[in-house]
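Hello everyone,

My group is preparing for a crystallization screen and wants a predicted model to guide construct design. The compound we'll soak is 3-methyl-2-oxobutanoic acid. Before spending weeks at the bench, it would help to have a computed complex in hand. I've included the protein sequence and the ligand's SMILES below. Output in C-alpha cell form would be ideal because that's what our pipeline reads.
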Amino acid sequence: MTATPSPLPVPPRITTPAGPRGADQPWWNTQLGSAMPFARYERSGTRRPRPLPLTDRTWPSKSLVRAPLWASVDLRDGNQALRDPMDTRRKRAMFDLLVRMGFKDIEVGYPSASEADFSFVRTLIEEDLIPDDVTISVFAPARPELIDRTFEAIDGVDRAVVHLCHATACLWREVVFAMTPGEVEEMAVRAAEHVARRTDATKGTRLRFQYSPETFNVTEPEFVLRLSNTVAALWDASPDRPVTLNLPTTVETDSPHVFADQVEWMHRNLHNRRSVILSVHPHNDRGTAVASAELAVMAGAERIEGTLFGNGERTGNVCLATLALNLFSQGVDPQLDFSDIDGIRRTVEFANQLPVPPRHPYAGDLVHTAFSGTHQDAIAKGLAAMGRRAAEADTPAAAVPWDVPYLPIDPRDVGRTYESVVRVNSQSGRGGVAHVLNTAYGLDLPRTMRVEFGRRVQRAADHGGGELTSHELHALFTEEYLEFDRPRLMLKEFRTTPGAAGVTLAALVVLADGAERRLAADGPDAATAFAAALADIGITVRRPELTCHPLPDTVGTRFAAYARVTVDGTAQHGAAVTEDAELARLTAVTSAVNRAVEHRVP
Ligand SMILES: CC(=O)SCCNC(=O)CCNC(=O)[C@H](O)C(C)(C)COP(=O)(O)OP(=O)(O)OC[C@H]1O[C@@H](n2cnc3c(N)ncnc32)[C@H](O)[C@@H]1OP(=O)(O)O
Ligand SMILES: CC(C)C(=O)C(=O)O
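Reply:
Good plan to model first. Here are the C-alpha cells for the complex, ready for your pipeline.
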C-alpha cells in the first residue's frame, strides 16, 4: 500500500516553442512552431525520387481471412541485434520454442558470420533436431566466400532455404557499395549464379532459395522488380520449387499504405508470379510494422518474416505474436500456439536477455489489466454477462463467443487468469473493487455496499498512492466489516424454533462491558426477530435487508452474509463470514450495529 517516492527527474532542456503558427492552422489549434531541426529531413522519395505508387490499388477492400506463412527470424535478425548474441543454450531454447509453437519456416542463423552461428546450424543438422515438416533457412550476403561457408554449414541437411540478400536501395548503392545500379545488378547475378552452382554440386539436399533486396521500400520499384525477376529466373523458379521473394522495409520510412501499394505493384508485375512466394520483412522504425505487414498481406504477400515480441535491429522486427493474435481476435486460426503466452515470453526473454514491455500487445504484464473504474466496471459486467450466456446455453464459458468490453481476447485463451484483469488503485471504482473481492475471495457484495466499500477503498488508495492488492482489499474489508476493536455487541449463541410470526429466536449476546444478556423475539425470519430483540438492550434496529451466499472455499463450507439496516435511525451495512448461514446473517446484523458505534467515534 506504500508507494516508493520516485526522485523528481532533472527537467529536460526544452526551447519554448516560438515559431510562427502554420498559415492554414485553424483558430482552435494554438500550437506554435518548434525549435526542432525538421528541415533536415525530407518527405521520403523527394531527394531520391521513386515512381509514384499505385492509383488503382485493390488492397483496401481486401481482408485478412487466413494466416500467412509465418517465418521466424529470431535466430538471425533478432540475434544480430542483441548486445549479447545468443549462445547455444539460448539459441536451442528459442529454436525448440518456435518448433513447439508450430513454426514451419525458421531462419536459424547467418552461418558465415560467426562460429556460434555456424556450429548451431551444424548441431541442428548433426543431432537431427529439425522436424520433417520444418524448413530451416540460412542467410548469406552476396559475397562468394561467405556463400561458400554457408553451404558448408548446411552440408547433409535434408531440406533448407538459402537466403541471399544485398542492398539495392539508392543510398546503399552510393554510400555502402559505391556502385552504379548496373554494378549492383551484376553483383546480384554473380551471387545468384554462385548459389546455383553450389546447389548443383550439393547432393541429397532439397534446397530452395530466397532473395531479399535490402531496403526494398526505398529502392526504385522498376529496378527492384527487374532484379527480382532476374534472380528468380536464374534459380529456375517454378510452382514446384518456388523462390521466396522477400521485400524488407529494412528501415521503415513511410506510412503503411505506401508499402501496401509497393507490395501490390510487385504482386501484379512479377513475372511467373505462381513460382514466387511473396514475402515481407517489416521493421518498426515508425512504429507501424504490424500495420505494414497486415496491409502487405492484403496487397498480395503470402509470407511474413518477424520475431516473437518484435526483437530486431533498432526498433525491431514486426512482432509475430501481435500479428498472429490480431488474427485470432478476429476469429482466424493463427496456426501458431499461443495458449501459454507467459511461458513463451519467459523463453523469449531468456533467449534475448531483453524484457517484454508491460504494454506489449497481448503479452505485456499489464495488457489484460484495468486500473480505471469505468473499465473495471464494464469488464466485470461483461464477464458476468458471459457467465449468464454460458449458463443459459448450458455450455462451458470457454465455448461462448467472446464479447467483453475493453478486452479484445479472453485472457484465459492465452493462459492467463481473470485475477490480473482488474487491479485497484486510486483510479478504480466500486465495480472493480467488487470484482477483485469476488474473484479472489468469493465475496459478492450487494450493490449499496459496493458503493460504500468503494469509497473506503478510494480513501485508502488516495492515502497510499499506489496499487492495493487483493489481499490488501480483503484486509480493508475485514477491518471495516468483520473485526471490531471494542464491539458494542457480540452474538454468543442463538436458537430458533417455529413461532407464531414464523420464527422465535432466543439469543445470548455479550455487550461492550462484557455483560451477557439473554434476548428473545418473534419474527418472520431469524434476522428480523433478532433485530426486534435488540430493542430490549436499547438498540433500535429496523428494516433488516439481508443477502447470504456460500463461499467457494477449498476447505469446508462457509457463508458470507451482508446486512443493510437502520441502527438508531441511521442506515448501516454489516457483513459476516461464518460456517453457518443463519449465524452469518445474524452476525452481519451485529456488524452493522458495531459499525454504527464506531462511526460515531470522532
Ligand atoms: C539487412 C540485414 O540485416 S543484413 C544482415 C546483417 N547482419 C550482420 O551484419 C550480422 C553478421 N555480420 C557479421 O558478422 C559480419 O558483418 C560478417 C562476418 C558477415 C562480415 O564481416 P566483414 O567481412 O568484416 O565485413 P563488414 O561486416 O564490415 O561488411 C562490410 C563489407 O561488406 C559489404 N557488404 C555489406 N553487405 C553486403 C551484402 N549483403 N552483400 C555483399 N556485400 C555486402 C560492404 O560493401 C563492405 O564491403 P567493403 O569493405 O568492400 O566496402
Ligand atoms: C535480410 C533482410 C531481409 C533484412 O534483415 C532486412 O532488410 O531488414
